[in-house]
Every structure is written in C-alpha cells, then in structure tokens.
Amino acid sequence: MADLKLTVGMAVYKDFANLWSTVTALRMYHPEILELLDIVVVDNAPDTPDGERTKDFIENWARNTPGLGQARYVPFGEFNSTAAPRNHVFDVAESPNVLVMDSHVMIEPEAVRRLVEWYDDNPNTLDLYHGPLIYDDLHHASTHFQDEWRSEMWGTWGTDERYQYERRVEVARGSDGEVAVKVHRTECEPFEIPGMGLGLFTCRKDAWLGFNPEFRGFGGEEMYIHTKYRQIGRKVILLPWLRWAHQFGRPGGVPYPLSVEDKFRNYLIGLDEIGMSLLPAVEHFDEKLGAEKVDKMLEDILGRTRDQIDPIPAPVLLMPGQQMPGQPPALGQIMPSQIADGNLPPGMLQGQPGQMPQGMPPGQMPQGMPQGMPQGMPQGQMLPPGQWTDGAGSTVPSGQSPVDQQPDQMQQAQMQQAMMQQMQMMQADRDRLSEERDKAMEMLAKAQSVAADNHHRRTAP
C-alpha cells in the first residue's frame, strides 16, 4: 500500500444520512488518489442511533473500499463542541497533511488530487488553506469571510474580485469508438484572504495551531483561528480550485445544539486568548442577549466588568517591546515579533486589521516613531521585567518610568504626535478596506440578483 498523504477528517453530530453521501462521493468521484487517503470520522454523538449507524458504515463498509488507504471511526462523546472534534482529527491523523470538512460537504472532481500535489510541491508550508464555497447553482461562489459582525458571528461571506475559475469538460468520440476526455481550466493564482467559513480547511498536521480547548457548543471559531495564524507571521490562503459545496438547507433543522450563550462564551475566550478587543463582541451580543446577561457572562467567564474588558495602557508610555515593570505584556500590546511583512497584528482599532506604510521593512516602525528597544537587542526580544528604555535606546533603571527620565514635555508631545499620525494612517487604510468591501458586496448582490432572475425565468410556467 502507498504511503498515506492526506487525512480527510469529518466531525459529525447525528448526521449519518449526510455523512453517508459525503464519504460515498469522496470514494466514487476521487478514485485517482484513494490509496493515498486516510478517512477519519470523529463522532460527537456516538451513543445515538445515528452514531451506531455511522460506526457500522465506516468500519464495515467504507473501510473495505477497494484501493482506499484506510477509513477509521473515532468516538468523541466527552462533551458537545464543534471545535474539539476538529482538533481531534489532527490528533489522530496518520498522514502529514490534513483536510477537515463538514459531514455535509461535496468536493469538485480533481480538487483532492490537486491538493495532494500542492502539498507535494510545498512540503514545508505552515499556512492555513481554504477553497471557494460554491452555491447550489454550482456557479456563484464566496471566497472569504469579511471582517464584520452579523447574525451572532464574526465574519460575513464575501467574494474577492481577484477570484476567477472555470472548469469545462469536453468529451469527444473518435471514428474508432475511442472516447477522449479533455478538461479546460481558467483560474487565478492562489491569494491571501482575511478568513473563511470552516466547512472545509486544510493545513499540514504539524502546522495546526488549534482551537481553544475551552470552546463548547457551536461558534467562535471562524476569524479567531485565522487571526492566530497571522499573529505569528503565517498566512491564510485561498486555493481557487479547491471548490466545495455545503448543504445549508435543513427542512428539519440542524441536529446539533445551537446556543447564543455558547457563541458569546467562545468569542470571549477566543478573543481574550489572542489579545484582541472584546468590545465588538460585547456590543454585538448586547443586542442578542441584553446588557445584563452580557455583563454576567463577562464576570463569570473572564472575571471582568464591562469597563475592564480592554485594559490597554496609554500608548505614549508603552513602545514596542516594552512592558510595565513587573507585569506581563498588556492585551493588545504590539511586540516586534508580531510585525510581519509590515502588517500589524489584528486587534487594533476595535478588532480591525491595520497596515504599516507600504515599503516599510519588516519589524520597523515609521520614521518619528521611537523604537523603544536598546541598541543591539535582537529583533522580537522583549526587555527583562522591570526595565524600560527611552526613545534613544538607553535603559532606564528599575523602579523609574520613562516620564521620570524624560521631563522634557516637548519630547513627550512629539512621541504622542507620532503615535497619532500612525493611528491616522491605520484609520485611512481601514476606510479604504471598508470601501473595497462595500464595492465587493455590491457586486455580489448584483450577481445574486441576476442569478435569481435567471432562475425565475427558467422555472416560470
């Protein structure tokens, strides 16, 4: 048997009928790479009729598929969560690369083979990958999640104007009866995206950063996991040919529990973990749960009150690489190691990404913005507890603050002015991104309107 190259994992909860279709389609429509696949089903409701049928199907039927690498059933009934079973897929994966997908997702032909080839060509990649979601007309698609809050979620579907993909199959029969099949493709290059729905995602097994183990129930995973990758200099990339369809329509409703409280709880834990502002989540769920319930959950989960959710010290005193004497880094504080290719870590300006000026060398601040690091200190290294530096890079003795060493009010004003200029530049970039997002949404709305009109014309009596 060939070495396994790709674990295809599914977290399932009382969804046997759809899982049967997904696993069967995977085996029927991707035969060219079956021997390289490790199919894993992690069941979050094993002690149910659906769980029993799922176990029987995987162990007694799917596992015996001719040419298939292997198929395994893994029960996970400790607690209900969409995050934990997905984490567990990576724990039990027996191949170097992992693709996680919902139990009600279909993947276009050739896409799984091309993903295996992608990892063959990029064996050391540490990035997180997604593919476009195609809608039920198999034409319109969403390429990413936009950075905004709506409907109890961080992120809304969007379509990037860079996206281009067309796959056309030509079948010709020769005079001798031989049939020739040609596939014609037009597609764009992979590109970076802010985030994406997690119905399908993939990365190397050893590159997975993991969902917070305290997540429970449904929600809080999108955008949070993508931010974790960007914060350490990795990327989130769309592979235009990794196209997948997702069953959204559920006449009988979704089988798994949906709780607004679970979503808010997970967002509080996740945003706190990655050092981002809690204000967008608090303000959004104020409308869903009410301020009194939100305040109680803040106290119960994080031990904070509303006026304590963003304790970020004044920027005039905390430069990159500095910290309060004897205290850990403040939430949202920018460290030089977080600045990658000129990108500030997400979480600035109420959770919106900020950009450094174009052309700025990685790890450097704009001219006039004090570096706040001693000369000769390696980039990304933090000062020892209890030490500060002045704007010239000289160390200030423990117990004294930069204010004690710099009584010159003019210098403080210059520092504050430089900080304000940087914030204004970030706000300008934020406004530009917002304008581009609005244009993309307008284009998507027009496309959906055209699709709806065409549908009505086709189905009109």
Tell me the layout of helices and strands:
Elements: E1 6-12, H1 16-29, E2 37-43, H2 49-60, E3 70-75, H3 83-92, E4 97-102, E5 105-107, H4 111-121, E6 128-130, E7 133-134, E8 141-142, E9 144-150, E10 153-158, E11 165-173, E12 179-187, E13 191-192, E14 200-204, H5 224-231, E15 236-238, E16 244-246, H6 260-273, H7 279-289, H8 291-302, H9 348-351, E17 388-389, E18 395-396, H10 402-405, H11 409-459
Parallel strand pairs: 1-2, 1-4, 2-3, 6-15, 7-16
Antiparallel strand pairs: 4-14, 5-16, 7-8, 9-10, 11-12, 13-15, 17-18
Helix pairs in contact: 1-2, 6-7, 6-8, 7-8
* CATH level 1 class label of the domain at 6-155 and 189-246: Alpha Beta
CATH topology of the domain at 6-155 and 189-246: Spore Coat Polysaccharide Biosynthesis Protein SpsA, Chain A
Distance between the termini: 55 Å
Structural class: alpha/beta
Biggest sheet record = 5 strands, mixed
Percentage of residues in helical conformation: 25-40%
* CATH H level, superfamily name of the domain at 6-155 and 189-246: Spore Coat Polysaccharide Biosynthesis Protein SpsA, Chain A
Molecular shape: globular
What average pLDDT do the residues reach? 81
Which oligomeric state applies? single chain
In total, the number of strands is: 18
* Radius of gyration of CA atoms, rounded to a whole number: 25 Å
By CATH, the architecture of the domain at 6-155 and 189-246 is named: Alpha-Beta Complex
Low-confidence blocks of residues: 312-327, 329-360, 362-407, 455-461
Helices and strands, in N-to-C order?
A: EHEHEHEEHEEEEEEEEEHEEHHHHEEHH
